Amino acid sequence: MQAPAPATLRPSDDELAQTARLLIRLRWVAGLSILLLTAIARWGINIELPAGGLLALSVAVLGYNTALLAEARRPDRPAATVRRALWGQVALDWLAMVALVHLTGGITSPALIYFVIHVALAATLLPLRGARGLALLATLIVAALAALEASGALPHIALPDLGLDGDLHRRGAPVLAALFFFSTTALTVAELVARQAEGLRQREARIRALNEARAAFSRAATHELRAPVASSLALVRSVEQGYLDELTPSQAVIIERVGARLDGLRELIDDLLDFAASREAAVAQPLLELVDLSAALADAIERERPVADARNIAVHAPPREPLLVRAEDAGLGMIFSNLINNAIKYTSDGGVVTVCCAAQREAGWVTIAVQDTGIGIPAAELPHIFDEFFRASNAKKSKIVGTGIGLAAVRAMVEHYHGTITLDSAEGEGTRVTVRLPLEDQRRAAKISG
Ligand code: ATP
Ligand code: MG
After folding, report:
1. Is the CB of 377 inside a 6 Å radius of any atom of ligand 1?
2. Suppose 160 and one of 31, 165, 188, 308 were both cysteines; which one would form an S-S bond, judging by CB atoms 3.0 to 4.6 Å apart?
């Protein structure tokens, strides 16, 4: 099944904000280049040019770029403001470009070709028709400038040292030829850029739609697969506990085996779904939100605690304090549940699992460690511990069930949240898994907890 893509797509807010940032970076280079080149040309190699006007232009470009940078850095700007500010940037650049062309010889200016760069940049943001219109507008602006200079309404600035001091700007044929080549170049570039940009946007929309379909499938599968297994398991348990009739010893053995297989199946479904979720998150790049990490950690500990209690394993939880990270609740839950589940699963009855959580606010990190007094991992196998489907030899020998997917899924999710994960272990002594995640601003954390 192929997801239909919309006929024309507007650039996303993210894309616009990225373009705005790129324009600001390019503008520093442009402003400084005009400044430097003018200084070198005028005072270094003594070329006659309107240095005052060009220096004023570079100062103006750097000045409005500083203002635009301050505006772009303002937090939480609505999408409409970002859009308006971007078109404002484009309009200011076109004005600066007209001034540059005028100051360097009008229609004879060697800088005329730079106008095409501006057309190309704006074409990345527009649908095809808009881009064509823009190329025509650029041609009209250049034609108007040429006409004003040819008629004498605007003084023509000659650059005699570059051989641009004749009356070329007043002669019809060279002016028309320059306009013809300028307009065809601008139109072709606008057409190519807009088509490419639109193609890319459509492909992205299709990928997004496919990912959404896949996520919907995972959610449906979660329900459809988990529910019958869970209810079968509940039924088997009630038979096992003798709620129906007393079982013969051989029936009890069979029922116990069915229960164990169903338990394994339930775990496998959970693992596969976690794994799918971690892959999906990495590909689909869903928007991350501000989440309280210590709440997710406490929930995961409480979810896993009954298993530990049943096996007399003490689980020490860290004190709760608001710690904001950019993640998803379900993703954090998956990370911590898997790590605590492993710590309990691979620890003998009566052992200890300690969960620590420490914020390094200055450095902007939070570190979560899950430590156990369990079977550990043979040193030679540690390099493979995050590989998909890898299980350590001692775990396999001990008959503890598992699929070897948990840690791979956990690592994918941690990396998706721009964090790191490390594992230290000594066979027969215990294991410590340390996760480090970027911590969000403390003041925002305080606002949420208040
Ligand atoms: P599942 O996919 O159900 O989680 P699993 O626990 O076997 O199965 P992972 O969580 O990926 O898989 O762990 C991979 C392997 O790493 C385990 O099979 C085990 O050998 C080893 N391991 C993980 N955590 C621990 C731990 N706390 N103590 C000892 N060994 C561990
Ligand atoms: Mg596991």
Report:
1. yes
2. 165
Q: To test the ligand 1 pocket, which listed residue (268, 407, 434) has its Cβ within 8 A of the most ligand atoms? A: 407
Confidence (pLDDT) at 443: 56
Per-residue pLDDT band for 4 (boundaries 50, 70, 90) equals: very low
Q: How confident is the model at residue 432 (pLDDT cuts 50, 70, 90)?
A: very high
Distance 218 CA to ligand 2 centre (A): 20
Q: How confident is the model at residue 311 (pLDDT cuts 50, 70, 90)?
A: very high
Q: Give the mean model confidence (pLDDT) for residues 100-104.
A: 91
Q: Is the CB of 402 under 6 A from ligand 1?
A: yes
- pLDDT for 142-158, tens place per residue? 999 888 988 888 888 87
Confidence label for 420 from pLDDT (cuts 50, 70 and 90): very high
- How high is the pLDDT of residue 302? 93
Exposure string of 140-161, with b = 16+ CB inside 10 Å and e = fewer, is ebbbebbeebbeeeeebbbbee
Residue type, 102: H
Q: Is 270 in the pocket of ligand 1 (CB under 6 A)?
A: no
Whether 267 lines ligand 1, by a CB cut-off of 6 Å, is yes
CB atoms within 10 A of CB 73: 10
Q: Is 7 helix (H, G, I), strand (E, B) or coil?
A: coil
> What is the number of domains present in the chain?
2
Domain of residue 346 covers 287-450
Q: Are residues 425 and 309 in the same domain?
A: yes
Contact 179, 168 (CB under 8 A): no
* Predicted confidence (pLDDT) at residue 14 exceeds the cutoff of 90: no
Predicted local confidence at residue 44, as pLDDT: 87
Tell how far the Cα of 53 is from the centroid of ligand 2, in angstroms.
69
Give residue 343 CA to ligand 2 midpoint distance, Å. Answer: 8
Residue at 28 is within a domain: yes
Are residues 39 and 157 located together in one domain of the fold?
yes
Give the distance (Å) from ligand 2 centre to CA of residue 341.
6
Non-local (6+) Cβ contacts of 221 within 8 A are 273
Determine, yes or no, domain membership for 279: no
- How does the average pLDDT of the chain come out, rounded? 86
Q: Which ligand is nearest to the CA of 353?
A: 1
| Any ligand 1 atom below 6 A from CB of 405 | yes
* DSSP annotation string for 292-331: EHHHHHHHHHHHHHHHHHHTT-EEEPPPP---EEEE-HHH
Pocket test for ligand 1, best of 304, 313, 388, 391 (most atoms within 8 A of CB): 391
Closest by CA position to 160, among listed 38, 50, 51, 49? 49
Do 180 and 310 lie in a common domain?
A: no
Q: Output the pLDDT for position 208.
A: 82
* Gap from CA of 296 to ligand 2 centroid (Å): 18
Among 149, 184, 210, which residue terminates a domain? 210
Q: 310 and 200, same structural domain?
A: no
